[in-house]
């Protein structure tokens, strides 16, 4: 199939005529990839059994992994769900349109192929002028998973989508690079207590401010035991995986204590290393982590292995390893999320065999960043 690419001239003010053909394709059962504020989605008519099947086919995705249904306004919600619980109403008022997906009990209108046979449906109202105009013009809710081949990093540019979807779908709408860069937060509001199924830009801290109690699905925190069923079926797959073997470096609590204890061997070592250079503004644990990542990478490099390092603007100059890319600024988690998938794809293109990455704090957007990096690493986290 020939895939058409439509470039939106002004991504903040898309013109109706730029999106009419895309809307018709979706309404009639075809597939169109489009930008949202999180990542690019691969959209099809959520009420059309066969469109969902095509989506699974184009992604090479197991069909027990349900799709997120995208809407453009609140009026589109009631017919898709059995009920709108109080928590759902509050979250919709607070965060929609935005990077939040909610899981509701589904209505009979939503076909089983869209929900992978579940009696619930995941719904999101994106905050993106192209996405919302496309959904509105299509006149139907739009089922859209991330527009990557299953198991590859989610696409944050139209070029990423093109790499994975050229020849497999009718159209790619090119709206440039997305803003957030990691997928939406998923919260299940179908039970008595809201449960976070996937961390995203709507953070746990934000939800804790609204509710007395918020649960976290264990699948977020670490690898699932064999046979365990995460509530978001997608969480059980090895997701977001770069071609190279990725490992994260994390500084142990015990090491941090030593780094802050005057007279300790590590404290003396890091102080003397840091005092000469222009690293005075780095935290000792950040300096130490970068030092250890570089040491491990240099060892691999000397052994002739093609190894790359994921570092940050603040630590970049510390590295002597040849292949290194900054994922953003430590001082701005948003910049790290924004560049995360692009950097993983870049290493794929560079043919790296191993990637060593710095890690980040788990708070706020860091929760989503570490969730994606740990999953991409298959939970290989080296404590130093
Ligand atoms: O930001 C996003 O959410 C992007 C953009 C395109 O909107 N979409 C996205 O879709 O990330 P996808 O398919 O890559 O991830 C959907 C996740 C999967 O882990 C899936 O298992 C979960 O949502 N999910 C979908 N329906 C569900 C349901 N009824 N119950 C629990 N989890 C569900
Ligand atoms: Mg995905």
What does the model show?
There is one protein chain. The mean pLDDT is 94. Helix 1 packs across helix 5 and helix 11 runs parallel beside helix 12. The relative contact order is 0.13. The protein has 384 residues and is α/β, with parallel strands linked by helices. It is globular, with a radius of gyration of 22 Å. 34% of the residues lie in helices and 17% in strands. The strands form two sheets. Strands 1-8-2-3-7-4-6-5-9-10-11 form an eleven-stranded mixed beta sheet, sandwiched between helices. Bound molecules: threonylcarbamoyladenylate and magnesium ion. The site of magnesium ion has 3 residues, from loops.
In summary, what is this structure?
This protein has helices at 16-27, 49-59, 86-95, 112-115, 129-138, 158-165, 204-210, 253-259, 265-276, 284-302, 333-350, 366-376; strands at 4-7, 32-34, 41-45, 68-70, 100-105, 120-124, 142-143, 171-174, 185-188, 195-198, 215-216, 245-250, 307-311, 323-326, 354-358, 381-383. It is α/β, with parallel strands linked by helices.
